Amino acid sequence: MKMPPFTKLAALASCATALLALTPVGAQAQELKIGYVNSERVLREAAPAKAAQAKLEAEFSKRDKDLQDQATKLKASADKLDKDSPTLSEAERSRRQRELVEADRDIQRKRREFQEDLNQRKNEELAGVVERANRVIKQIFDAEKYDVILQEVVFAGPRVDITEKVIKALNGPAAPGK
Question: Fewer Cβ within 10 Å of end Cβ, the chain: N or C?
Answer without folding.
Answer: N
